[in-house]
Amino acid sequence: SKTEKEFLVEGMTCASCVQAVERVTKKLDGVKDVSVNLTTEKMHIVFDQKVLSTIDIKKAVEDTGYKLVDIT
Ligand code: 9UX
Predict the structure, then answer these.
(1) CA 48 to CA 32: how far, in whole Å?
(2) Per the database record, which ranges form the HMA domain (predicted)?
(3) 34-53: pLDDT as tens digits
(4) Which of 17, 21, 62, 66 to mutate to test the pocket of ligand 1 (most atoms within 8 A of CB)?
(5) Among 20, 23, 39, 49, which one has the highest count of C-beta atoms within 10 angstroms of its own C-beta?
(6) What is the mean pLDDT of the chain?
(7) Is the pLDDT of residue 22 over 90?
């Protein structure tokens, strides 16, 4: 049930934005790995889809002030 997805993260303008997005997603139950790239604006995330949905991930990031766009 481990799955990988790519998202586009909208609204990041500095390295602290990247850290904020990584921090909020890494602490979600079911997330195994997250990496966010400021230049490409992409997030790569590995998570257990039995525990967490993409909606949950989007909500967590959007509550932090950024927007996630599904690209896979
Ligand atoms: Mo950097 Mo991001 O000062 O919202 S943390 S712009």
Answers:
(1) 8
(2) 3-69
(3) 999 999 999 999 999 999 99
(4) 17
(5) 20
(6) 97
(7) yes
Report the separation in Å between the CA atom of 58 and the middle of ligand 1, taken as the mean of its atom positions.
Answer: 19
How many domains would you assign to the chain? 1
Task: State the closest ligand 1 atom to the C-alpha of 12, by its place in the atom list counted from 1.
Answer: 2
The reported pLDDT for the residue numbered 63 is 97
Structural domain for 23, as ranges:
2-70
Supply the ipTM of this predicted assembly.
Answer: 0.94
SS3 sequence of 21-65:
HHHHHHCCCCEEEEEECCCCCEEEEEEECCCCCHHHHHHHHHHCC
Whole-angstrom Cα distance, residue 4 to residue 64?
Answer: 22
